[in-house]
Amino acid sequence: MTGVPSLGLVGRIAALSLAVVFFQIGVVSEVPVFGVNVDLSPLLVAFVGLLCGSMLGAVSGFAVGLLVDLALVQTLGVTSFIFTLIGYWAGRLRELRDPQAALTPLLVGAAATAGSLVTYSLIEFMLGVDAPVSFELVRQIVLGTLVNAIVALPMWALVRRCLVGGLPDDPRRRRRRAYTTGGLSPLSRVR
Amino acid sequence: MYDKTVRRRRAVLALLVVLSLALLTAYFGEAPGGRLHDVQRGFLTVISPIQDGANKALAPVRNLFGWFDDTLHAKSQRDQLRKQVDRLRSELVANEAERRSYQELVALYHLDRQLNVSDYDPVTATVVGKSPNIWYATATIDQGQDAGVQVNDPVINGEGLVGKVTLAAPDGAQVSLITDSTMGVSARIGSSDATGIVQPKVGDPNDLLLQYLPANTQANPGEYVVTSGTIAGPDDSLYPPGILIGQITSVDEESAYKSVNVHPTANLHDLDVVQVLTSTQHSLPASLSRIAASMPPGQRGATGASGEQLASTGAGE
Lengths: 191, 317
Hints:
Largest sheet of chain A: none
CATH architecture of chain A: Orthogonal Bundle
Distance between the termini of chain A: 34 Å
Distance between the termini of chain B: 58 Å
CATH architecture of the largest domain in chain B: Beta Barrel
Structural class of chain A: mainly alpha
Helix content of chain A: over 70%
CATH class of the largest domain in chain B: Mainly Beta
Strand content of chain B: 15-25%
Shape of chain A: globular
Strand content of chain A: under 5%
Radius of gyration of chain B: 23 Å
CATH class of chain A: Mainly Alpha
Order of helices and strands of chain A: HHHHHHHH
Number of domains of chain B: 3
Oligomer: heterodimer
Number of helices of chain A: 8
Largest sheet of chain B: 6 strands, antiparallel, barrel
């Protein structure tokens, strides 16, 4: 999506982001799964990028990251930085490759989660936060990625359902549909 | 047209990245009372009521997930608890005769008096948010400065010590749990007078390490670790003495100072209602302890290098 996004779409993304972040903080963070917590925020950002393109992906990533940092009283800017890159990367993936496989959201979600966890750890190390450097950290990253991959498909369905009404019809997909139907709609072929 | 789109896209990315890094640098470089911290406190004030409402509204969902989680872990927990009950029963029998014939009842009586929580003006609060990552072991509660909560106030629940308040807004506060990497609590083993510092265990953030104990300290697995009632530094929180922190799981004797591994008794993964002890800051013991902590190490007494001294010189901070 290269044009200026509609206000409706921006509103949908903002509402969805607020809801997901509060649900994450109030519910998901308090329910450990296999000893780790599901983190819906990187999935949300990656899927917004995958649906809306790199520009909206980066902007929503920055906003969601800032919201997370403010709400959790963490170092401002760290999550914004990481989520900006994740949103941009997912958007570019869509613009350059436009992957259509059913498992694409799962792989993108896992990659976004792993990327966010590893980058977060690296930044915290660089900031000099005294934290565990051990197998436990690796375990948290691996398990966190796996658990997020499990919830990636339902999360993708939710994000897609919420945003699809505000997305403009993609010309490339329209062309693809035309190609697969022989350039004509089934009705015109009948004629 | 294409070049313009690419340029705009790259410009937006660069702008956001630079903005993030600028925020990070400014936030990390400023004092806790700085402008960005004020913004964060203001935001916490605004969203605390929302979080509180959302927390109450979403409690059934959380309980449902919790029920699944509990069911999955029920079997292993049952086996663990059976073993624990067997061990505790044998320990109970062994201790019974000694307990009857000795003055432990008197000591327990004094301990109960010391632990009279109502003396510390407790404020009951509900946990409305928790940090989802292992870097920050923090929780957000729905009571703040309006209820008398201040930075450094100890936070407990029915199972033991939970942490201390590290940021207070009018309607909410942030609590650093005892497993947070920034925490250090003066503590002693229940049966000993020697004090040390309880800190998160590096490599296993869910466990604790009681460090800087004198080498001749008797420590056995299964013994309880409680707060010592002293402070580790001038900026530290005064935890009332005798609050349960955890249970010793193993003992390390590899250096001049003994250290023991401690498993926290409070279930920090499932916090719901906590109590903030709000009157410890201005109590007489707190004032005296602060004065003592601000003195040079040589003037505090001739008891040798204790945990508090090590901590106040930086080792335990």
